[in-house]
Amino acid sequence: MIREFYPTISVASLQLHHHIVLFLPIESRLSQVYGAQCRPGIDIKAGREQQWSPCVRVLEGHTGECYSIAFSPDGEQLVSGSGDRTVRSWNVQTGALLQVMMGHNSLIHSVAFSPDGVLIASGSYNGEVRIWDAATALQVGMYTRHSNAIKHVAFSADGRYIASGDNHGHVHVWSTEAPHRPVKEFQVEWVRSLEWIGPTRLVAVSRKVTVCEVGSDFPIEEYDIGYIAAFTVATDGKIAVSSNRQGSFIIWDARKWTKQWMTRYSPPQKFTSLALSPDSSLLAASSAVSCGVWDVRTKKQIRQFTGHADNIRALQFSPDCSLLASASWDKTIRLWEIAVAESPRKDPFTTGVAASPLGTVFATRSSDGTIDVRAVESDQVAWTSRVSNESSQRMVMSPDDKFLAICTVEDSEVPIFDLWSGRLHTVLQSNARRGVRDVSFRSDSRQVALVQDWGEAELWDLDTRVRMWKSDLPCEDRTGNRVAFSPQHDLIAWSGRSQSGLVDAISGEYGITWDSVHKTPTNLKWSSDETRLLIGYEYGNVRLYDVASARSTGQAYLLFIYDAKHYKTSLSFFDGHRYILTDHGLICIPPQHRPPCATDARVLHCSETMPRLRDDGWIWLVGGEKGEQRVCWLPPAYRCARPRLNENIAISRSKVMLVTDTGHFISIDLKRWLENGDTGS
Question: What is the distance between the alpha carbons of residues 486 and 419, in angstroms, rounded to a whole number?
Fold first, then answer.
């Protein structure tokens, strides 16, 4: 339990008594003994775990994609390299962050521990390899003879040498005691993998397998083993494993490079990372967001692990073979216990959730295309329907809780349902070349605006079911990602990765366009008096524009920029337009930039509060006279790695509903906690 809930206990120890027992698996001994005595005021209405998950830790803290991981020789630490330009070391038992090594000015693609655990090597995209003291996190050396991005670094078995390979195929072998000049240099086509198979023998993998000897001026062996998608070699140098385009594993005798056996999979999978256990008995392979474990002797898969929200880039077994670590582009590292099997995912599984603007109902969608609409208070199903089962669907509800629209970038049709009866009101046949990216209803639900995947916009009248106009948005990247009707129904705002702008809602003619920040927009909000436009982008960039004089001047004025370095799931004006409400707290709008409709600064803060889930797993209560309050921490099994409001997370005034990265629907009711005024921390 300590290992699972360390992030909570280390910050708020009273959570152990208040809310941790609630998230223990139902069949666990601790839950059975203490569950009846726990009265936390928080209720899990749906999705409580039955058994312990094989994912025993999720290491969170990197702000960029994770590319590489390495266990220390004693298995007590794990080191990781990331796109955030840091190397981090972690306590494997607790998940605590031990050290942060900073100094690289480019993303770190490879990390390695020395055989004695004293040193850490890290290679970055600017061609540098830095050496760190594992105990103090101080830099003790640097190798700068590469002129291209480092792809791999590896220590020799005796720790005397480090091999480094770059993306132009230059392999350098150099001494840890003299990291200023190479001992040997070799040239291959490029470096897909670089591993030692002896004190002085090195295997470099590109299109071919090249075996190099430190004492030789040239590669001593070269083998063509076919297309190599991923590769790994055993620590004793006896066997190696490669995967090909067809998703097959091939086991090789690494001494003669002869094929021992091959296993084909149907349908074919693209395996991007491979790892052999230290005793060569287990093989791990990753494909997209999941990873599996195979018994090398029986050639059978024994485990399948899912939970990452983005592609897995690296795998490694712990020295005692009890854990498998996986590093992902979702910025996390997960530790999987090999002895624990994952419960099979039930089909169909949940793929999305959205709540109505008035907080009365919420909708879930499933992998088979089923849409369920439920009452927020009772969780009872109001109606069910079936639509196409594209994974990229978005569910958008009208501001007055009258209609539900479903759009996808894979289909040009947009079905619109009556939100209360489930009756199909109409199907909008857009002229989208690919699909519809976003939908925005007018406040009275009489019209709806669509923005398509190629930068085209349409306006439909829902009373007559007729298209009013179609307009080509002047965006260079041809991707309009978000659209929003203005409160007075006369303008439509749109925002894409490179540009944003306004369109006349009556004629469809675009009025003004301005450059964006080359990031994907996640939120688009108008002030109630239509003078300010708020745009939120992925990874925390928030921009406030003055659009009051847009019609007369043809310009929008950037007033305010806030960069929180956090992914924003929600964004809105708050407390009389004096603040911006986000899931990471309130952002105060400078008085000179507030819209004219903003309340007087002498008015007390409003008493309204809203729960928000932050990217560190904590649910906070934001707003109100007491300020921000911690509510509870959600274990990784109860949340999604990349929350997106009304896509995989929905929030009402007393409820948080999520879809996890493994397809489980979670509903957490905070009503009793709010009524009791509990703090639990």
Answer: 22
